[in-house]
Amino acid sequence: MNYRILAGSSVAYLWNHAFRNVPSRSLRGAFLRLWLGGLGQGTGVQMSCRFLQGRKVFLGERNVINFGCLFDGRKFAIRTGCDVSIGPEASILTLGHDPRSPRFADRGGEVTIGDRVWIGYRAIVLPGVKLGEGAVVAAGAVVTRDVAPFAVVAGVPAKPVGERPRQLDYRLDYAPWLL
After folding, report:
1. Is 97 a catalytic residue?
2. Whose CA is closest to 48, among 141, 174, 178?
3. How confident is the model over 34-75, as pLDDT tens digits?
4. Whole-prediction pTM value?
5. Is the separation of the CB atoms in 98 and 105 below 8 Å?
6. Is the peptide bond before 165 cis (omega within 30 degrees of 0)?
């Protein structure tokens, strides 16, 4: 038996079945600082978020991770920049299967999310995607390819529908006590 896998699975189980619904941002944050690959200063993870492998998730400074998000860091890393806002129930995936494989082979890749990216409600970011600085992913979009800096994408699959101003100067500061 591989004890590292057993220990990692146990910690994931504790988070996903107990701690993720603790109604205290401070307690959830303390657990995540110990478990995640990185948790930047001022980043808040709201209740009901799931991490399939926390050690490969690196959240930058001042991120707002809304309720019900899924981070799949099972095999590849997820890295976010600063001031990233991820909407409720969004999914960031790093691993799937090759539909053309006769053996149902794994296929995946690291997901990189740049500074000041805004991901909307129930959006899905697929494995191997890079979201450029300031990009916006509309609610319900499925991102299958890299998104250029400051591009606004929407749809299934996500396609460019606009552009965001390049002079972004905000810093996220959203820290509700019970969420």
Report:
1. yes
2. 178
3. 999 999 999 999 999 999 999 999 999 999 999 999 999 999
4. 0.94
5. yes
6. no
